[in-house]
Design a protein that fits this description.
mainly alpha
């Protein structure tokens, strides 16, 4: 995994103390350093949802 993901921060409009300290995100978008077109990312994410 790209080490940059260890530095990713998420912000929400409201304070949410119910979120766990660690969690995972499942996505079909290219996250391995490849550059995919928007249409390929959306198609892959839609297939993951199915």
């Amino acid at each position: 995994m790209n080490p940059i993901y260890d530095e990713t921060n998420f912000y929400t409009p409201e304070s949410n103390t119910a979120l766990p300290a660690t969690f995972g995100i499942i996505t079909a978008y290219a996250t391995t350093g490849e550059n995919w077109s928007d249409s390929k990312n959306i198609r892959a994410d839609t297939e993951l949802e199915a």
